[in-house]
Structure prediction request, 597 residues.
Amino acid sequence: MTAYQAPLAEMRFVLNDLVNLDRVTALPGCEDATPDLVDAILEEAGKLGGEVIAPLNHSGDMQGAVLDNGLVRTADGFKEAYGQFVEGGWNSLPFDPEYGGQGLPWLVSTAVFEVWHAANMAFALCPTLNSGAVELLSAHGSDALKSIYLENMTSGSWTGTMNLTEPQAGSDLGRVRTKAVPSGDGYRISGNKIFITYGDHDMTDNIVHMVLARTPDAPEGVKGISLFLVPKFLVNEDGSPGERNDLRCVSLEHKLGINASPTAVMSFGDNDGAIGYLIGEENRGLEYMFTMMNNERLAVGLQGVAIGERAYQQALAYARERVQSRRIDGDNPEPAAIIEHPDVRRMLLSMKVQTEATRALAYYVAAHLDISHRCTDDTERRAAKARVDLLTPVVKAWSSDTGIEVANTGVQIHGGMGFIEETGAAQHLRDARIAAIYEGTNGIQANDLVGRKVGRENAETVLVLVEEMRELDAELAKAESAHIAATRQPFSLAIDALESASKWIADTWGADRAAVAAGAVPYLRLLGLTVGGWMTCRAALIAERKLQGDEGDPAFLNAKLISARFFADQYLVQCPALDHTIRDGGAAVTAIEDAGF
Prediction:
């Protein structure tokens, strides 16, 4: 089983050259995030991830988390590793210094979190949910709640969770039944929630649940949902955990993957009702929860990047070591390492290049998230927010789908050994599979994209992006590299396809939403591939300039030229066909009757 090493050279290139870290460090409050500091942060994160967290990945998967006499116990080593994580200040990177945060950009935190997810996705889910909870409470909590909870949550000494799903509701949050009855200074919460990641565990002294519930007079549907902070332990006046609240984990789910992450069924209020505190105003809970949900959606897309990287590293090492069959184009009768066989090289390139493209997109959106929060120019800030809103479902869905594809290819490169658990290749595929499901299935992300982000706004934001891509298309014509020149036609046709499909959605949304929804997933893939091509072509141009200036590692930079060509030849060429599917593929979907299935 291959040890994980953070891909520091690639991460530096994306941060510094492709998404322009210097633009982020010029923002108010980000001045300290210099390339040298960021590089040091990545180095240390790589050490903790590779030496402490990654070695627990396989053993944690085999052992899993267990519910023992009402208490959830994490796999061996997790509690100690989490202690090192908190002691190192890793949880606090992007948060408000007023509550113990380091105030670093989300872009830096995103790169660091890639390391945690790649090292051990099941472990990283705990700080991932906590980060979303901290952002939610920071944005919408009262000063009183912030003063009690934020410092410990920012440090990671306490962790936060997201409690949305109920057995009868699934993703239809309008059917949530959990009750919240006013009681003194708070509310009494009663109901059941399922699929609660790290809903209970033994790594911290307290767990702070963010719970959607209904007050007695709330209207039906999503307009009647409120949001409550419900701690596992009530907090004493001195800030220490006190009396146990009326909530408990009643069972843990047995899952396909992420076995070391306890996925809890939570029961609130079996006795007198769990004490909870209202966040913000009544009946605006779903609005507030979207702050956390969007944070988690970007994190889930990053999981696709991270698992892709981990699977690629393992497949590459195996392909270099595994000797089987002679070269197809040589006279030597001796068997060769399988990396010398063209189809294996094709599979490895597919893993490498898709991971590079999804990483670039994730970091790009993180950089725009920082701009949307901190930029002093209103026009630039609003434009950045619109770009983040447009691309968040793409990061979540396209990147997680791609992570599954990459992990699946990794199993294939291992051959029969990929189907054997002890190699670890199968775990990457099992772990990756959840990312397309949780935090809103990828179909939900696609519907959100074509509805809220394209149809309702007449494709305005995506067409601005199209024009930016056309500017790069013109630059490609000036490149000297034959590999870059080969990308131009596929990239240009991909842009045309994206523009065509976006305008069709804008024109059709008001009249035939079912037709648009039937093509939503292909449209999200079209946007993901086109943006991915934009990123790989930009990276190739940057690499060419560096090569011309005798700057950087020639092997690394030349590989960027190959990556752009491979992405264009293998993926951008799919875009015109996707445009056809988006426009016409829904006819059969809407025509078939139930009896026809």
Q: What stands out?
A: Residues 285-321 form the longest helix (37 residues). The chain has three domains: 8-155, 158-285, 451-597.
